[in-house]
Amino acid sequence: MADNDSPKAELASLRAEVDEIDQQIILLLGVRFRCTDMIGELKQAHGMDLVDAKRESQQVARIRRLAEEAGVPPALAETILREVIDTVVDHHTRLRERPYS
Description:
Layout: H1 2-45, H2 53-70, H3 74-97
Helix pairs in contact: 2-3
């Protein structure tokens, strides 16, 4: 019976670890979005372009390199980063389109 409990206990422990990691990822995304909100406000206040293609390209290369170093598929990391960037740009676009901005 103990042999059957051990894998179940280990699985539960590993799943709890994954849950904690997921929570940390979401918390960090929240911090990132707050920071990009401030960037968007700064850009809007100074009439700067929403998108900086050069910066975006540098970020993609950086994220791919970091992913590779961390043992994460670089294509996955790029897909995630692009989704985050697209979400931020969409949010900034909507803010600029408000009639009272």
